[in-house]
Amino acid sequence: MESEKDAEPNATLAGFDVIDGIKSELERSCPATVSCADVLALAARDAVAMLGGPSWGVLLGRKDSLTASIDMAKEDLPNPKDSLAELIRMFEKNGLDERDLTALSGAHTVGVAHDCKNYDDRIYSRVGQGGDSIDPSFAAQRRQECEQKHGNATAPFDERTPAKFDNAYYIDLLARRGLLTSDQELYTQGCETGDLVKTYAMNGNVFFADFTRAMVKMGNIRPKHWWTPAEVRYSRLETIYWCT
């Protein structure tokens, strides 16, 4: 089955083997109880904490889908070249506001982009030659890497501390050194997102607080045909019962 994991926006995602390994261990201990969706939500929380970031409570009770849609993944995931208006529209469609958008984008304080096509619009366009939205030296550095690797270069989203969960991503945006268009678009003067970028760059604790709140909010988005609150509560109790 072609699933959301096979969608182009997810093509370079790694770590599914880790989720599969955790799921296998759980199946041996308490079969048919904990979903892969819950494992993924918990693993995301723990990975952030292990890299120096905050932690938060994860509501359990998600069900795994038998028809994870590749088409919905294509339509509902942000594009690295999206404008701020498009990002706001996409997040609003899922009940997330501009504060959620800005805070959740901070997840790019960790990780890399695997293909130059994801940011070639920034480094090769007229803007990439030294416009207001990009540092010319940053653009030149990325162009050199892409040309040396024939378009297959990897580049960190946060060039300061790419393996640490902190607020350096926002400091990069203030310096016009955001890697993706969808990153740098957040720092738009006169917009709420731009003000939040400055706040998070100056105060990592505020970023952590907003990130955890937004992660809980996003984790509670219900897809179609989701369980009722009563079923979620029952599932949580059932999980506690069978796994203890």
UniProtKB/TrEMBL annotation:
Secreted is among the record's keywords: no
Presence of the UniProt keyword Transferase in the record: no
Domain Plant heme peroxidase family profile: 1-233
GO molecular function: heme binding; lactoperoxidase activity; metal ion binding
Amino acids binding heme b: 108
Superkingdom of source: Eukaryota
Binding-site positions, substrate: 78
Lineage start: Eukaryota, Viridiplantae, Streptophyta, Embryophyta, Tracheophyta
SS bond partners: 116-146
Catalytic activity, EC: 1.11.1.7
Cofactor(s) needed by this chain: heme b; Ca(2+)
Family, similarity comment: Belongs to the peroxidase family. Ascorbate peroxidase subfamily.
PANTHER family: OS06G0521900 PROTEIN, PEROXIDASE 72-RELATED
Catalytic activity: 2 a phenolic donor + H2O2 = 2 a phenolic radical donor + 2 H2O
Binding site for Ca(2+) 2: 109, 158, 161, 166
One Pfam family hit: peroxidase
Protein's recorded name: peroxidase
